[in-house]
Amino acid sequence: MNNSKKKILVMVFGTFDYLHAGHENLFTQARELGDEIITIIARDETVKKIKGHLPDHNEKERLKNLQATDWSNLVILGNKKDKTKVIKDYSPDVIALGYDQFAFTYRLEKMLMDIRLDAKIVRLKPYRPDMYKSSIVKKQLEESATTTTTQES
Fold first, then answer.
1. Element (H or E) spanning 152, and its range?
2. pTM of the entire structure?
3. Residue 39 in 3-state DSSP?
4. Fewer CB within 10 Å: N-end or C-end of the chain?
5. If we measure between CA atoms, which residue out of 147, 130, 139 comes closest to residue 56?
6. Of 61, 69, 66, 19, nearest to 44 (Cα)?
7. What is the rounded CA–CA span in Å between residue 83 and residue 43?
8. CA–CA gap between residue 127 and residue 132 (Å, rounded)
9. What's the pLDDT tens digit per position in 23-45?
10. Of 36, 37, 61, whose CA–CA distance to 47 is shortest?
11. CB of 91 closer than 8 Å to CB of 117
12. What pLDDT digit, counting tens, does each position of 78-106 carry?
């Protein structure tokens, strides 16, 4: 008799330009939703289209940085042409969205119905968004570098 239960796969999407405590919390919440996490790193051109600028770290650096953590079981780059291909390929049980993720998500439920995938969509809670957001972390790093440079002069 086989007692092995199907592992619940959670899929997470993001840019992950500057890794911080907010990202770590996102993965902690995602881990509570299933057994394994697959993370899809946004391609540079996708980030530019959504945010209006390229990320500071290119897609290969962002991929490598997230792979260096133990937050996700698998980290891959998104598909350049078909943003939904990874969902079709991996058939996650849960799609975990960040509290501030809205690009491509408004069509997500319809797309899941179209491909007949019974995945649960969960919007994760923010973790101190006043402090832990990549744009804020980047600004703090820039201010810190400016202060250091000014002090050295």
1. helix 134-152
2. 0.81
3. strand
4. N
5. 139
6. 61
7. 10
8. 7
9. 999 999 999 999 999 999 999 99
10. 61
11. yes
12. 999 998 899 999 999 999 999 888 877 77
- DSSP readout, 85-150? HHHHHH--SEEEE-TT--TTTTTHHHHHHHTT--PEEEEPPPS-TTT-SHHHHHHHHHHHHHHHHH
Cα distances from 63 to residues 14, 31, 116, in angstroms, run 11, 19, 30
Instruction: Give the list of residues 6+ apart from residue 12 with CB closer than 8 angstroms, or none.
Output: 26, 27, 30, 37, 38, 39, 40, 72, 96
| Structure token pair of residue 86 | 């990874």
Indicate the SS3 state at residue 51.
Answer: helix
Residue with tokens 């042409």: 81
Q: What is the CA radius of gyration of the chain?
A: 17
Task: Please state, in angstroms and rounded to a whole number, the distance separating the CA atoms of residues 11 and 17.
Answer: 18
Q: Look up tokens 């969902």; give the residue.
A: 87
For the chain, the residue count is: 153
Say how far apart CA 86 and CA 14 lie, in whole Å.
13
- pLDDT tens for each residue of 109-129: 999 999 999 999 999 999 875
